[in-house]
Specification:
The chain has four helices and ten strands, in the order H-H-H-E-E-E-E-E-E-H-E-E-E-E. It is α+β, with helices and mostly antiparallel strands.
C-alpha cells in the first residue's frame, strides 16, 4: 500500500503544506504509513512539473552539506560550505545544456530521468550527462509551494552533493 500511495503522490502531487507536523507527531505512522509514502508527500507539493518548466537559464547556489566517502578502510565525511551565485546552468529544449560553474564551462547533452533516478520526486526530470566532475547530475523542479521558481541539481549517485538554482530567464 505504501509504495502505491507514494507513486500516486509522485504522479498527482499533494496539497499538504506542512509534512513536518504530520511526521513529527507520527500521525501517519499510526496508520502504517512509512517512508515509501511520506518521502513523496514531502517532495511533491502541487501538481507535477513538465519538462518545459526546466528549460531556461538558472543562477546556481551551492548547498553546504556533508559528503561521505569510503577511502581505503576509512569512512570520511567532508563538510562543504554554502555559497551563493556560483554560476549559471542553461537547459535547452533540444537536448543540450551549458553549465558555467564559475571555474569553467561544461557543455553537454541531457536525457529524460528514469523513475529510479528521480527517487521520491515526481514530474519530469532530466539527467545532465557527464556534467560537473564528469558525472551525471539530475535537474529537477522544486515543488515546495513557493512563488519563486527553483531548480534542484544533484549528483545522481550521491544526492548529498547538491546545488539549487533560481530562474533568471
Amino acid at each position: 500500500m505504501n509504495k502505491e500511495l507514494g507513486e500516486l503522490v509522485e504522479a498527482r502531487g499533494t496539497t499538504f503544506t506542512d509534512m513536518n507536523k504530520l511526521n513529527d507527531r507520527n500521525v501517519l505512522g499510526r496508520y502504517g504509513v512509512n517512508s515509501d509514502a511520506t518521502g513523496p508527500m514531502t517532495h511533491n507539493y502541487g501538481p507535477p512539473n513538465t519538462k518545459q518548466e526546466l528549460f531556461g537559464t538558472w543562477e546556481t547556489n551551492k548547498i553546504g552539506l556533508p559528503t561521505h566517502a569510503i577511502v581505503g578502510d576509512y569512512y570520511v565525511t567532508t563538510l562543504e560550505l554554502a555559497k551563493a551565485k556560483t554560476g549559471t546552468v542553461t537547459i535547452n529544449p533540444k537536448g543540450s545544456y551549458v553549465w558555467d560553474t564559475g571555474t569553467g564551462v561544461i557543455q553537454g547533452t541531457w536525457r529524460d530521468a528514469t523513475h529510479d533516478e528521480m527517487a521520491d520526486q515526481g514530474g519530469a526530470d532530466v539527467i545532465l550527462q557527464n556534467a560537473k566532475s564528469g558525472v551525471n547530475w539530475i535537474a529537477y523542479k522544486y515543488r515546495a509551494g513557493t512563488k519563486e521558481e527553483w531548480l534542484g541539481l544533484a549528483e545522481v549517485n550521491r544526492r548529498s552533493v547538491r546545488e539549487s538554482a533560481a530562474r533568471i530567464r
